Amino acid sequence: MMCTYEPYDRVFLDIGPLTIYWYGLIIATGAFLALLMAMREADRLGLNKDLFVDLLVFAIPAAIIFARFYYVIFEWDRYADGPWWKVFAIWEGGIAIHGALIGAVLTAVLFAKAKGVSFWQIADIAAPSLLLGQAIGRWGNFMNQEAYGGPISAEAWDNGLKFIPDFIMNQMCVNGVYHHPTFLYESVWNFLGIILILVIRRKFNPRRGEIFFTYLIWYSVGRYFVEGMRTDSLYVWNTNIRMAQLISVLIIIGCIIFIIYRRKKGLADKHYNGKKVTKR
Predict the structure, then answer these.
(1) What is the pLDDT of residues 155-187, one digit of tens each?
(2) How many domains does the chain have?
(3) CA–CA separation, 178 vs 181, rounded Å?
């Protein structure tokens, strides 16, 4: 599918020497809305909602550092010959969401321990908020014209893609060819995950920690399939294995094992709402 469209300007606003990019603005908006969602739920459960404000102060820098570190490790050939400061040049692009997730989770574990609260409770409350931040954040990739898939065939277009709004498809016109808007596929998948988690935790009141595992499994399933379509994947060194797909599979397996292990050992002894699990 050939096309001839100009991409949107990546810059939202120029104020003298300060340049604000759409990408940063969208990421910040996603983080803010995710925080509001988590605070509202914390308040409903009788937890200090300001706890999540404090957590975000530490989690965001850690997530950015780990996201960049993760990316650089698997793209080291781009940085090996210097200059050395390019390793830290996040403004030129290059962060990985799995790295951000690792940094955020480690920070949350340490934070929960320092505050004397349950990590699993915090993680369960934050689960749909994480999906919300990721779903909105993918639109930053849209504005940057990145994280897209391979070229769209005429058959794929006729089978459904022609119903995607023009403003989205026009931005996916790269080098004169339409590409799959994989950012959109992942964003929609994440929004569906939010609905799923909200229904599960309100209607079924699962054991503490299992909402967070549900989030990880849901996101990983979607990411596995979307990653297979992308043209900018990180690969395991000197192999054709896409790193995000490998990590997604490991997360899914690990979550299932953790759920079974925690139940068998009696570690998941409370429900999401804090009530003790009734043993039968």
Answers:
(1) 888 887 889 999 999 999 999 999 999 999 999
(2) 1
(3) 9
Tell whether 280 is covered by a domain: no
Q: Using the 8-state DSSP alphabet, how is residue 135 labeled?
A: H
Residue 48: give the domain boundaries.
11-264
- pTM recorded for the entire structure: 0.93
Instruction: Say how far apart CA 74 and CA 236 lie, in whole Å.
Output: 7
- Strand residues in the chain grouped as ranges (E): 11-15, 18-21, 173-174, 177-178
Nearest-5° Cα angle at 150, 146 to 155: 135
The Cα–Cα gap between 166 and 159 comes to 16
- Assess if residue 2 is contained within a domain: no
Residue 270 lies in a domain: no
Dihedral of alpha carbons 98, 104, 107, 111, sign: negative
Convert the pLDDT of each residue in 221-255 to its tens digit.
999 999 999 999 999 988 999 999 999 999 999 99
